[in-house]
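Severity: low
Component: inverse-folding endpoint
Summary: output formatting inconsistent between runs
Steps to reproduce: submit the following structure tokens with default settings.
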């Protein structure tokens, strides 16, 4: 472990999100309770003196255990009706990263990602063997089992709701394929060159439920750990890996002598991967003291970039920033040092559920952020 060079007051902090997408108002109360409980579970760890990694893992475990989210239990199913999850974790002080992709039968995918990250943290082993930073499929499952990560029957991760959702989506897909086949025959008969409706633009009733979950935690030493975990998009191809497992896409943590930052991202994985959204977002906010403007720039570029196909661009991010400042008029004073700490969230989706808590708070703050009609993004934040 390198010397502690992270700015961070002995005031711990944690924030979580339950995914960017669309959350029906009837689910809001349950979601707010869930993210609040996740914050509390992580904060208990921090108050007991454990690391940011332990706290972030605990909070993410709590989110993965809920059928309300698309991570772990109740995840979206592949087109073959199986569960394949992605997750990753990153340590700000060491830069260590670990990801698992398309893994089945792991109760808490984030535990697998953390196990991979610990290997990266240790560096080359015997004979200079370089430890992996990303493992997928059966190889990831075998590694996780060897590291003591809990393995379960895949069926135990499928809920009645996720099974029903899969059956409904398969029915919609088959009907759409049949309709497209009939259109193709008509076009051939009429030798029509008009473009038919693009089925890729059609969506399932719950297609906005991209509920990738995540967490950012800072412990009393100032170190930051960020996590993200996801069941992926509905009816994905087996073996598909989303942003939750990819370095720089789903999560980022970085500690410098004056500023520490961590972020966790949710949304449509392929779009986020192409833009390395987490890394880009964190790097911009690390260098600028105007987090809102930095977020606005990154999201605007995300909405405008030509690399992404389709009109709908889905992303949400929660970001925590802690800066050591010499300005005596602002910040909180700890041990004679001034710190500016703030939490921000932003999204292009219809809603985004977030919660945050510092060790100075009596209870978590939680909210479901919603996109106003006619707007393309929401950016909001609070000082800590």
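Observed output (run 2 of 3):
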């Amino acid at each position: 472990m390198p010397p502690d060079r992270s700015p961070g007051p002995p005031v711990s902090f944690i924030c979580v999100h339950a995914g960017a997408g669309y959350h029906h108002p009837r689910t809001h109360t349950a979601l707010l309770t869930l993210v609040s409980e996740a914050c509390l579970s992580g904060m208990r760890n921090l108050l007991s003196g454990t690391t940011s990694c332990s706290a972030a893992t605990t909070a993410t475990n709590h989110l993965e255990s809920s059928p309300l989210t698309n991570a772990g239990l109740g995840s979206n199913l592949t087109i073959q009706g199986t569960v394949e999850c992605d997750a990753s974790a990153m340590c700000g002080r060491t830069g260590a990263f670990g990801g698992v992709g398309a893994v089945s039968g792991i109760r808490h995918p984030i535990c697998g990602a953390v196990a991979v990250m610990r290997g990266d943290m240790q560096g080359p082993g015997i004979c200079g063997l370089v430890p992996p930073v990303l493992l997928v499929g059966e190889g990831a499952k075998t590694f996780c089992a060897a590291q003591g990560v809990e393995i379960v029957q895949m069926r135990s991760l499928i809920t009645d709701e996720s099974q029903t959702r899969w059956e409904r989506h398969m029915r919609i897909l088959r009907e759409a394929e049949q309709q497209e086949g009939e259109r193709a025959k008509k076009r051939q008969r009429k030798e029509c060159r008009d473009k038919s409706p693009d089925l890729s633009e059609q969506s399932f009733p719950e297609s906005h439920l991209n509920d990738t979950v995540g967490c950012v935690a800072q412990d009393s030493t100032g170190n930051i750990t960020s996590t993200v975990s996801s069941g992926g998009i509905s009816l994905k191809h087996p073996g598909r890996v989303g942003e939750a497992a990819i370095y720089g896409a789903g999560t980022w943590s970085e500690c410098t002598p004056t500023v520490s930052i961590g972020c966790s991202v949710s949304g449509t994985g392929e779009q986020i991967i192409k833009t390395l959204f987490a890394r880009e977002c964190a790097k911009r906010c690390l260098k600028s003291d105007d987090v809102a403007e930095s977020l606005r720039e990154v999201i605007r570029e995300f909405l405008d970039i030509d690399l992404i196909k389709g009109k709908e661009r889905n992303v949400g991010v929660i970001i925590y920033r802690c800066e050591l400042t010499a300005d005596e008029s602002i910040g909180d004073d700890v041990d004679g040092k001034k710190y500016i700490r703030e939490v921000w969230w932003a999204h292009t989706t219809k809603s985004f559920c977030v919660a945050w808590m510092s060790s100075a708070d009596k209870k978590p703050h939680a909210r479901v952020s919603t996109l106003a009609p006619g707007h393309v993004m929401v950016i909001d934040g609070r000082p800590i």
